[in-house]
Amino acid sequence: MSSHNEQQETWPEQPPDRKEMSRRQFLTYTLGGATAFMGAGAILPMVRFAVDPILHKKGAGEFIKVAETSKINDQPQEFTFELKQQDGWYASTATLTAWIRKDEAGDIYALSPTCKHLGCTVGWNNDKAYPDEYHCPCHGARYTKLGKNLAVAPKPLDQYKIKIENGWVYLGDVVPNTEVKKEA
Ligand code: FES
């Protein structure tokens, strides 16, 4: 008898009872989770709506239909076009100008009219003393047909990204000039 008692005392303790989740806890967790899920479903679209215009600056990277390719020849011609911009919640329309021309190889390119000296607007063939050049009226900068800087300005005229589709010239972002290299 006594040996049986001793054996009982030396047995390892029974594993503790598994923690049971009470019915109240279960309901609390379930309802809490469902409420959080539904709340996120309602709030996230509102947050996205509020923040989206900040994250996406519209206008950049787009191409605008500007001119028919049949109208482009080897003389620079001025074309204006409108770019709709969305900066945050601010919507605006910018009127842009490009000087478009076909080079000797027949490739079409478009130069920005913004002078690389201090940002005035250049014109083509507008200084009788220097025919067949772009001229800036502000401080006398001059550029070749391809936009190469000849005087005053430190850099060539920028150019637009260009895309030709279905007989139309489309212009995109303004980028540094690559036409001048063809001249060299
Ligand atoms: S801004 Fe064109 S020459 Fe100065």
TrEMBL record:
Q: Which Gene3D superfamilies match?
A: Rieske [2Fe-2S] iron-sulphur domain
Q: Where is the composition biased (Polar residues)?
A: 1-11
PROSITE patterns per the record? Answer: RIESKE (PS51296), TAT (PS51318)
Keyword vocabulary terms for this entry = 2Fe-2S, Disulfide bond, Electron transport, Iron, Iron-sulfur, Membrane, Metal-binding, Oxidoreductase, Transmembrane, Transmembrane helix, Transport
Q: Which residues cross the membrane?
A: 26-47
Instruction: Offer one Pfam family short name for this entry.
Output: Rieske
The protein's matches in InterPro entries, at most eight in alphabetical order, are given as: Rieske_2Fe-2S, Rieske_2Fe-2S_sf, Rieske_Fe-S_prot, TAT_signal
Q: Name one GO molecular function term.
A: 2 iron, 2 sulfur cluster binding
Q: Give the Rieske domain ranges.
A: 102-171
Family indicated by similarity: Belongs to the Rieske iron-sulfur protein family.
What quaternary structure, including any partners, is listed in this protein's UniProt entry?
The main subunits of the menaquinol:cytochrome c complex are a Rieske-type iron-sulfur protein (QcrA), a cytochrome b (QcrB) and a cytochrome c (QcrC).
Descriptive protein name:
Menaquinol:cytochrome c reductase iron-sulfur subunit
Q: Which organism is it from?
A: Paenibacillus monticola
